[in-house]
Design brief:
Arc Repressor Mutant, subunit A; mainly alpha; disordered N terminus
Length: 436
């Protein structure tokens, strides 16, 4: 499709970049700024600004004339409200822009139909609908993610890490199961770069690796899923013990393969490996990508399937779980995979038994503790340990908080039954979670 559709402006940058540019203009204290001055303040080239301004314009936040950028009334209201933590006002302005832009309206209607979309799927749909001549996955993803982040900010969806949904993504598997965005050797380079940092931001690593921050962020997400990197509550990244073992220059190649195999088979990707191992036929890159797309519920093109298939093969090779049988043909080592999975299952069962025993021991201590002020610290210590063991079950936080309040109430009223009765309730809830 060409003609009118080809003239539709599609956001090239996401809402974070929009806010960054507007903040610089707003802090200057003047609604107008030249492109030259803006590039100087941000520390980027004019081409970078030229990529951003069309998005700011289509959102109705700026006017640009003779290389001078002027904040519109909506633009000024948006950034002043955002800077004052009046986020709902800012959202309302972006929501109005979404409803007026043809590309964004199209994406919103697509989301209403499909419920959940990836940036790549959005980019492909926009390209088909409006006759854009984008040819590769990177372009689909860049434009798609930009649209998704803007729609997500407006409150018309929930956007996170390349996926937008009509409903919040709350389960661990949904939020952490990412496409294999990075091959095995780039993982090693990323871990080696991260290793000297006690805690690093994605921007730190992007600067070191001379790569785009968005790409590094996606690669870090994959490494977190594999257990090679840890992410703290403030958004900082650090290498895990398994990650250190994988890049240890003193370790033998077989030991490194065993470490990566352990990471792979303890991650959500283990299901993909298991299903591939059950296939008797030789597998191509595209067939492997097809399997990944099925498990992740993604609508990838043949080219995308090949790309992800190739990257996943490098993982299998790094874990010594695949052998090449032709130029684009592979066979998984079924015996090795079966033995490794059996071992992981046995370790998991053993770990679960130990955890249940430890939880029982802590509960026993909480049941026998006497609710008096002198025992407050011991009580808090036991609750903290219990909370850390159930950190993936946020619904139990309210249960633990209720127990805390009733412990204090028993202390204040000197009525032990208040605490004891609530302790019975907590024990039953935990047993329900454990399935025992």
């Amino acid at each position: 499709m060409t003609g009118r559709g080809a003239q539709v402006v599609v956001p090239y940058v996401g809402i974070d970049r929009v806010i960054e540019i507007l903040r610089v203009i707003y802090k200057k204290g003047n609604r107008e700024i030249s492109v030259k001055e803006l590039t100087s303040l941000i520390g980027c080239g004019a081409s970078n600004i030229n990529n951003v301004t069309p998005t700011l314009g289509l959102l109705g936040l700026i006017d640009i004339k003779k290389r001078v950028i002027t904040l519109t009334n909506d633009g000024f209201e948006f950034i002043s409200a955002y800077s004052s933590d009046k986020i709902e006002i800012s959202k309302k302005i972006i929501r109005k822009a979404v409803e007026q832009n043809e590309a964004l309206k199209f994406v919103k209607s697509l989301l209403d139909t499909r419920v959940q979309l990836t940036g790549e799927e959005i980019g492909k749909a926009i390209s088909d609908r409006f006759g854009k001549k984008w040819k590769n996955v990177t372009s689909y993803r860049s434009f798609g993610n930009s649209c998704a982040s803007i729609i997500g900010f407006s409150g018309l969806g929930y956007y996170n890490d390349g996926i937008i949904s009509l409903k919040p993504i709350t389960t661990k598997s949904e939020s952490e199961f990412h496409p294999p965005e990075v091959g095995y050797q780039p993982i090693i380079r990323l871990l080696t770069t991260l290793h000297p940092f006690e805690k690093a931001k994605g921007s730190d690593l992007a600067e070191k690796l001379k790569a785009k921050e968005g790409r590094i962020s996606r690669e870090l997400s994959v490494c977190v899923t594999l257990g090679l990197v840890e992410k703290n509550v403030s958004g900082g990244y650090s290498i895990s013990e398994l990650g250190r073992r994988l890049i240890d220059p003193r370790a033998a190649p077989e030991s490194k393969a065993a470490v990566f195999r352990e990471c792979l088979l303890r991650s959500p990707y283990a299901e993909i490996v298991s299903r591939l191992a059950q296939t008797e036929n030789e597998l191509s890159y595209e067939a492997i990508g097809e399997s990944i797309a099925y498990d992740l519920r993604r609508d990838w093109t043949s080219h995308s399937k090949q790309i992800y298939g190739k990257k996943f093969v490098t993982w299998l090779n790094g874990a010594n779980l695949v052998e090449k049988s032709g130029p684009n043909s592979f066979k998984l080592k079924q015996v090795e995979i079966g033995n490794a999975m059996k071992k992981e299952h046995e370790l998991s069962q053993s770990k679960q038994v130990k955890e249940i025993y430890e939880i029982g021991r802590i509960l026993g201590g909480l049941e026998t503790i006497f609710p008096i002020e002198e025992n407050q610290k011991e009580f808090e210590d036991r609750i903290s340990v219990l909370k850390s063991m159930f950190k993936e079950h946020g619904d139990l936080d309210l249960v633990f908080e209720l127990l805390r309040r009733n412990f204090q109430l028993s202390v204040d009223s000197k009525n032990i039954l208040i605490y004891r009765t609530n302790m019975d309730f907590v024990r039953d809830k935990i047993k329900e979670k454990l399935g025992v």
